[in-house]
Design brief:
about 40% helix, 6 strands, STAS/SEC14 domain-containing protein, six-stranded mixed sheet, alpha/beta, Transcription Regulator spoIIAA
């Protein structure tokens, strides 16, 4: 049996989510473990912002399969303020974000809302996917910008 090589480092792990740096993908990966209050949602994105500044990658993979509903004001905040701030922490000031979404129509609509807002800022390209493999493959095609 061949051991699988570990290609990531866990940077933050809580009951709410995990953030890791995937060195093979050259991305930060945010995986939600459950739904949370607005304060938790915003706090973890501030943590993600700090980590983006330290790791300096321009790819982000977000797994929202267990996130649940996100309040409309948090969607707007994420799209207008946080995603452009994340992009400013990348080497070329541009972010590629792949989002893994569940079949839940409310989560899909929220993700589409954030995609539209953040892409309008000109600092980010977002795509959402139903499979982890599809999301990773799309991110791999987005060249690291330096």
């Amino acid at each position: 049996m061949v051991a699988e090589k570990k290609t990531y480092t866990v940077l933050n792990n809580s009951t709410y989510c995990e953030i890791r740096h995937d060195t093979e993908l050259q991305a930060l990966v945010l995986t939600y473990k459950r739904s949370g209050a607005s304060e938790e949602f915003r706090a973890i994105h501030h943590e993600l912002l700090l980590l983006m500044g330290k790791v300096r990658v321009n790819r982000l993979l977000v797994n929202t399969l267990k996130l649940g509903a996100v309040a409309p004001e948090d969607q707007r905040w994420l799209g207008h303020a946080m995603i452009p701030s994340l992009a400013k922490q990348t080497p070329a000031l541009y972010l590629f974000a792949a989002v893994l979404v569940p079949e839940n129509i409310f989560t899909k609509l929220a993700v589409e809302q954030v995609e539209g807002i953040s892409e309008a800022t000109g600092t980010c390209t977002n795509r959402h996917f139903s499979s982890y493999t599809e999301a990773k493959n799309w991110l791999r095609k987005q060249l690291p910008l330096s």
